[in-house]
Specification:
The protein has about 80 residues and is mostly helical. It contains one helix and no strands. The protein has one domain. The termini are far apart. The chain is rod-shaped and about 85 Å long.
Length: about 80
Amino acid sequence: MTKVDVRELQTNETDDRGRIYLGTEYANKRVTVAVVEVEADRPDEDELAAAYREASESAEDLTEEWDDASDEAWSGLNK
């Protein structure tokens, strides 16, 4: 088993086709690459759904508050 020095680990980002540029120091050499972790650049569907629900509930709360304030304002004008 190959031992890896933690100081030699690199974090790179892929292009839109999933490719990584390693650099010219690896030109014409055999390179073994291991993917240790993958992070998505966008939230997953569950996070997105939770955020949408939260925004929807906030919008409903704001609508109710606006209705109350609006009714109060119109009542004040009618006096």
